[in-house]
Amino acid sequence: MPMVMGSSAITSSLVWLNAFVLFLLTIHGTATESSYHDHCSSIVPESPKTAPEFASLPFPPFQNGYYDGGDIILNSNPSNYSIENNKVLSFQTLHVFRTDHDSVFKVEGSLILHFRNRNYLEQDMSWTYAGSFYSSRRSRKSAVSFNLEGFWKESTGELCMVGTSSSYSREGKHLHLAAVLQLTGVKNSTITSLIRGTLRSLSSADDPNYFEPISMLMFPQTNYQYTKNSNEFEKECSGDTDVSGSSSLSLHMGRSICSVLAYPVNTFQLEYASDCNSSKTCNPFGDDVGFLPQLMSLNTIQCSSDGQSLRFLMEFPNSNYVGFYHSFNPNTTFVGEGTWDWKKNRLCVVACRFTKRNASLSNSQVGDCSIRMNLRFPAVWSIRNMTSISGQIWSNKSVNDIGYFKRITYRSIDNNMLGVPGLKYEYTETNKVRMSCLVKKPVKKSGENYPDGYSTEMSLDTSVRDSRGELAWGSWSPISVGDQIFQWSSGSFMPLSSSTPESSSLEANTSNGRPLNISYKISLTPFYAARRTALLNISSSGYNMRVEIFAEGIYDAETGSLCMVG
Q1: How many alpha carbons lie under 13 Å from residue 98 in its C-beta half-sphere?
Q2: CA–CA gap between residue 86 and residue 74 (Å, rounded)
Q3: Contact assessment for residue 201 and residue 195, using Cβ atoms and an 8 Å cutoff
Q4: Beta carbons of 84 and 324 less than 8 angstroms apart
Q5: Per DSSP, which regions of 396-433 are E strands?
Q6: For this UniProt entry, which residues form the secretion signal (predicted)?
Q7: Residue pair 161/150 in contact by the 8 Å Cβ criterion
Q8: Over 70: is that where the pLDDT of 403 sits?
Q9: What are phi and psi of 537, to 5 degrees?
Q10: Sign of CA dihedral 554, 560, 565, 566
Q11: Half-sphere exposure of 529 toward its Cβ, with a 13 Å CA cutoff?
Q12: Could you tell me which of 520, 522, 497, 500 has the C-alpha nearest to residue 510?
């Protein structure tokens, strides 16, 4: 039989329900306020909020950084820990309010600690061959998010917040985490500024919800003040080798250096001087790191509003591989900022070292800004010099000074044209090819048709097998055809040079019976079994397992004949 409640009963229930909810909110609010008063009031005093604030913010909407610790709450296995662990954090600013105190703001936000381990990637790899590239499932990852609120003092750059989160222990037990976040350096910044801090548990050491303090490091982005302007940077790069501006590509007005280097990680191969036989004078880190870096990656932190200046990390891993996820090591990292020089078509960079480096990121410091770097886009490619980005790194110190190292050249690993117009290819081996391919021209059979030299069909997939029977997959990617440079983008080739703009002209070049000059990048990668074995020892193999051949020659569209040297 249905039960019918009168309006007075419903009203009475709602009153009790509202009172109960209000009671719970009061308890939660009181606990939060009590926690803040107990752990933060001596750092940034509480002050009643007055109105929302949108101009003075401690962070941009999303601020990234690095942390150390937290293995327990992130449910990571210490036996899997290595230098390849990637521990990144992100702080999302949700609300900022003005308070009764002019320099104090109330802040509400969330702190997310991400954890990714390279061993997971190696053990959970599933390679798939598909159209000249390999794809894999993403590495396993875990994350813990803290909801925090507290106060920021703009004049001192200190921020203190308290909040809670939930996680699971390695045994599967649900954890209720309460913590206090303390940060310093949250204010206007320069190249040597850092945001440092610690996330500490509010539980006692014998409580299952307790975790060891987590140290943090972030690079402030709000109101960043670049060290040099364009004119001063020209002086800073005076130690650069004499490279004429005409030998480097210029950025057109609609493209900024920030947009060109917008990729999360840009990787480069380092080349040391032939007389470099001492780590003390050749290694940018001297004898401190115990290895001579072979790779450098640029990881963009921030771009200026006009896109002509940017900040980034220059990282030198002890590995032959740099992936999208990689560890942060201040012992092998420089902090740099650069501005594009329109006169000499180059990026001029000033970089600094981490001068205080120990187990705690919260104690890191930046100084010794004696490193210089340039970056340019070579205007001419050839079979022996095919790189989309090149440059040099050097020290402006004297030979006998601590921190001095000899000039290092670097070149990009992946030869993407990156949308910089004007690139040309110089053929140097075509005469040798013509001598090597002096064979009787085959007679074209009726009904036979071969791809036009500028067709996307000139991109090939291939498989090769060596004398031992080992199989490798490969791809042939045209770099230039005739006087045109091409880039594979969105499933079609796009010309980057305007010397022959009309497609009808391109077709005419292939229909007049004359063979076309052509160049290729041929990439060969061991098949699944060999590749998987390489990944398990990726620090000594990795990228070097892939073989790249640069070739150039002639293609006859009438007979389908392609002959090259590489």
Answers
A1: 9
A2: 12
A3: no
A4: no
A5: 408-412, 424-425
A6: 1-32
A7: yes
A8: yes
A9: -130, 50
A10: positive
A11: 3
A12: 500
Q: Provide the token pair at 181.
A: 């976040």
Spatial contact of 462 and 129, defined as CB atoms under 8 Å apart: no
Query: What DSSP line would sit under 279-303, residue for residue?
Result: HHHHSTTTTSSSS---EEEEEEEEE
- SS3 labels along 314-383: EECCCCCCCCCCCCCCHHHEEEEEEEEECCCCEEEEEEEEEEECCCCHHHCEEEEEEEEEEEECECEEEC
Q: pTM for the complete prediction? A: 0.79
Q: Tell me the pLDDT tens digit for each residue of 25-69.
A: 343 443 455 589 999 999 999 999 999 999 999 999 999 999 998
Q: Please report where in the chains the tokens 């498989």 appear, as a residue.
A: 463
Give 200-250 pLDDT, tens digit per residue.
999 999 999 999 999 999 999 988 988 866 566 666 676 555 566 678 888
Neighbouring CB atoms inside 10 A of 526's CB total: 19
Per-residue pLDDT tens over the stretch 62-97: 999 999 988 888 765 544 444 456 789 999 999 999
Burial class of 288 by CB neighbour count within 10 A (0 to 12, 13 to 18, 19+): exposed
At residue 48, φ and ψ (nearest 5 deg) are -60, 135
| Rounded distance between C-alpha atoms, residue 96 and residue 51, angstroms | 9
- CB contact set of 504 (below 8 Å; sequence gap of 6+): none
Confidence of residue 526 (pLDDT cuts 50, 70, 90): confident
Distance CA 74, CA 439 (A): 66
Dist CA 268 CA 316 (whole Å): 10
Task: Return d(Cα 246, Cα 232) in angstroms, integer.
Answer: 22
The position carrying tokens 């303390």 is 182
User: 528: helix, coil or strand?
Assistant: helix
Burial of 463 (0-12, 13-18, 19+ CB in 10 A): exposed
Question: With contact defined as beta carbons under 8 Å apart, do 407 and 273 qualify?
Answer: yes
Pairing of the two strands 424-425 and 380-381: parallel
How many residues are there in the chain? Answer: 566
CA 275 to chain CA mean position, Å: 32
Cβ atoms 164, 148 nearer than 8 A:
no
Which residue shows structure tokens 């590495």?
139
pLDDT tens-digit map of 186-202: 998 899 999 999 999 99
Supply 215's token pair: 């140290």
CA distance 537 to 320: 11
Q: Does residue 10 come out as left (phi exceeding 0), alpha (psi in the -120 to 50 range) or beta?
A: alpha
Render pLDDT for 407-456 as a digit per residue (tens, 0 to 9).
Answer: 999 998 776 655 567 888 999 998 889 888 876 666 666 777 889 888 88
Element (H, E) at 529: helix 528-536
Q: What is the dihedral of CA 505, 511, 515, 516, to 10 degrees?
A: 20
| Tokens at 70, concatenated | 């937290």
Round to whole Å and give the CA distance between 472 and 49. Answer: 65
The two structure tokens encoding residue 98: 């003005």
Q: What is the largest CA-CA distance in the chain?
A: 104
